[in-house]
Write a structure and sequence with these properties.
binds magnesium ion; Rossmann fold; binds iron/sulfur cluster; alpha/beta; single chain
């Protein structure tokens, strides 16, 4: 049991125009070793912030992030067992570095390999992610988007991580290339026993990969459920709205029902249930009382007053 996220509360208080933005507020969940947890929600809901907290790139203003029971922020330097795979691999690859150094430098710094082994080590990693080892002499601009995504994965794997946080890791890629990279992620999980937090706005991607899904809305968790249960029987009105947004290509008439209304600003989230201005099932108490995330079945949690008999 990894206990990666044990308690994260009121995290990421950043001052924007003298207002504190709680990008992630009172979020608490645990990821088990070997699990693939999908984290979904519209842009600005705090998914990326949560991902960065999970790798120790942000420190919560309140609460703690634990990895194998130990607070993540107590470790010094780069959190080697937890690696982040970025949204845009091109932006995160130094254009003046050869792939040999992009992939091979961190393991050398961490003492996993010495200078003499760096080349062979990098070659093996490139082969593992489906790239020709001779590519190690090249620079990032000489690759396609899909190849750069693979370089980013090789770089993360180079320090022998246990847990990967993938933030929109395939969002920039063509659909056919996406599928190949997603398959690579799954092969690596089976082979290396990796655990994933897979952040995506794309429910199709999350459904394909995840054992369990966490749905976020404006910095709070709306619902947590095993993947197939979530898709078969979403509980939270926000999850229901998100699922209705997916075009049903298997149907005769494609339905596309965007969630009504704009996402409110995180600077001034609506009181009570943050979703109430957009919720088709909102009741008077929804604009006043914050719904608590409560158990609604085995392994299922939802934060909606409709589940509350009172
Ligand atoms: Fe809708 Fe109320 Fe449930 Fe929020 S608590 S999702 S507003 S019904
Ligand atoms: Mg993001």
């Amino acid at each position: 049991k990894l206990d990666i996220f044990e308690k994260i509360a009121n995290v990421f208080g950043s001052n924007i125009k003298e207002q504190t933005v709680h990008a992630v507020d009172n979020v608490s969940f645990t990821i088990q070793q070997g699990e693939v947890v999908g984290l979904v929600g519209e842009s600005g809901c705090g998914k990326s912030t949560l991902g960065r907290l999970g790798c120790g790139l942000h420190t919560p203003t309140e609460g703690t992030v634990r990895y194998r029971g130990q607070p993540l922020e107590s470790e010094s330097g780069v959190r080697r067992p937890v690696q982040l795979i970025f949204q845009d691999p091109f932006a995160s690859l130094n254009p003046r570095m050869r792939v040999l150094d992009i992939v091979g430098e961190a393991p050398r710094v961490h003492g996993l390999v010495d200078g003499a082994q760096q080349r062979d080590y990098t070659a093996a990693l490139l082969t593992r992610v489906g790239l020709d080892p001779s590519y190690m002499q090249r620079y990032p601009h000489q690759f396609s988007g899909g190849q750069r995504a693979r370089i980013g994965i090789a770089r993360a794997l180079a320090v022998k991580p246990e847990f990967l946080v993938c933030d929109e890791a395939v969002a920039a890629l063509d659909v056919s290339i996406q599928a190949q990279v997603l398959n690579l992620f799954m092969d690596l999980r089976d082979e290396l026993g990796l655990t994933y937090l897979f952040i995506s706005h794309d429910l199709g991607v999350v459904r394909h990969l995840s054992n369990r899904v966490v749905v976020m809305y404006l910095g709070r968790v709306a619902e947590i459920a095993p993947t197939e249960e979530l898709f078969a029987e979403p509980n939270h009105p926000y999850t229901q709205a998100l699922l209705e947004e997916i075009p049903r290509i298997d149907r005769k008439h494609r339905t596309f029902v965007p969630i009504r209304g704009e996402i409110p600003s995180p600077l001034a989230p609506p009181p009570g249930c943050h979703f109430h201005p957009r919720c088709p099932k909102a009741m008077p108490r929804c604009s006043v009382e914050v719904p608590t995330l409560r158990e609604i079945g085995p392994g299922r949690l939802s934060a909606c007053h409709l589940n509350d008999p009172n």
